[in-house]
Amino acid sequence: MSTPPPNKQAVKDDLRYLRLLARDFPTVSSVTTEIINLEAILHLPKPTEHFLADLHGENEAFQHVLRNASGNIKRKVNDLFGNTLREKEKKDLCTLIYYPEQKLELVKQNERALDDYYQTTLNQLITVCRSVSSKYTRSKVRKSLPEEYAYIIEELLHESTDDHNKQAYFNVIIRTIIGTGRADHFIIALCYLIQRLAIDRLHILGDIYDRGPGAHLIMDTLCNFHHIDIQWGNHDILWMGAAAGNLCCIASVLRLSLRYANTQTLEEGYGINMVPLATFAMETYADDPCEIFKPRFENGGEDPNEKEVRLMSQMHKAIAVIQFKLEQSLYMAHPEWHMNDRCLLEHINHTAGTFTLNGQTYAMRDTSFPTIDPKHPYRLTPEEHELMGRLAHSFRISDRLHRHVACLLLHGGMYGIYNSNLLFHASVPLNEDGSLRETIVGDGKAKGMELMKRIETLVRTAFDDEAEEGERRMACDFFWYLWCGPDSPLFDKSKMATFERYFIAEKETHTEEKGWYYKLRNSAEVCDHIMDEFGVSGEHRHVINGHVPVRVGKGENPIKADGRLMVIDGGFAKAYHDTTGIAGYTLVYHSRGFQLVQHAPFTSTEEAILNGTDIQSTIQIVEMMGHREMVSDTDIGCKLREQIADLEKLLYAYRRGYIKEQ
Q: Would the pLDDT of 231 be above 60?
């Protein structure tokens, strides 16, 4: 046994709990069977975890990384068929696994000996499936099987073709699948099973939203993923705040979507009615070229025509001005945020066309503000007030948006600790000396782990129908501080210089000074201090986060603090490819250690299907363990040992007559 024999007094103390446990294990035989099963699971290899950060709406690239398991499926195929299949055949098999429906359609258009193709392909897929399922118990694999084919797949996975007594049986199953016209369905089922088993757990370290066009599609996938956790990013919090009814968050969500010429998530994904904003913008800025508000077209697709660009520019300016007005009311309502210096509209000299910042006067790049009253610069016009009411209504009634927010609340939080890895999106606020920084949260202050916990509570309060109205209002307002507050662990910069970037050419005004976490995170001592604060233990412990793109092209290393910190924002979003020089990272943690997979830009799903084009990935060995890690070395192993200890107490209680077998 892996645990010491139970103590008699401990068994007596736990009798009430043990009687409840006896309902699931009513006999000595059932208890011993479960103990044997759990002990065996402890000695299986550790399942594979994948860590991704800063997806920013790039659904096609994200889906491909999931489907190819960050290149792991391709490596499996090479290992299994390296000397028996040509390169094109291996590429075709990988493409089939990634996109089974589409690839089969192409095959049927060009393949004459279709039955032979089915026979060969089914045997190959079963071989791959055996390999990726070898880390798991039969029970776990069985739960992953598609119900329609569960029995057949289980038979094929656990019968060896080398066994002459079973070879005919195996071949008959394959021939019957083909003969009954179910080959396509069966192949598709096997491909998705391989995809599912290749990634045991997925960790998303924030920023699912903004920039790219497919955040709603990514969320659909995540809501249905089999084993997932999410650490909220600042862009996720912005959308959650919009769903909660924060008008500043709503305005900023719209502004960012228009800035990156991406309204698919808003309109197609969540059914947000943009017509009121378009109508208002066309009427208010009819004669304004809105030159500095032209959107960035960085997501591919057809180039918009001149009228579309003009309309988006007008909408962009209209909602930006509204956002700058709305911000002031929050800063005035919450002096504890110390953000009154971000009330900027009052510093515009409309006659001279200048802006004064920190005593310095600058010429403004745009001086047309038909909706700003210089005497009351933050007051919404009646039309702006009505517009925000209609937009807030659209966000409030979007069922799909609220389903996705519910998923973020269910699977998400400010931080996570898994297998000695501390995960969070951006930072843990620090002082200059590396000590934890006290930060405003709600009506008090907190630091470190307590800060993260209290923020989580506040975020959930905003969606709690049972909470008092005042509590909900404060919680709803706080989303904006989390988005751009100087000590927010999701931002942690001196300011968000949105206004300055739009209206002032001088780049020194655009500077957003990073918090001390970003300056000190290269220190092993600081990272150890943070992990100690969160109770992260273990010989191989790490901090893993994203948020700030790693400038690989300029020689920046994502592995910091003597290997204690891994920054995995490699720039999935096309807007960041020039900054990072790559197109995203996946951190893979398997039974032998950590690998950082560096992805080249993804062309398109269509290109991947037609030509078998895969993401070119480079693997960097981050850390290899001295021994192969087993389930017993993981958090799940700790829980299993606790279950074994409880079962051994129940076994003792049965054998000593404290509890009767049923």
A: yes
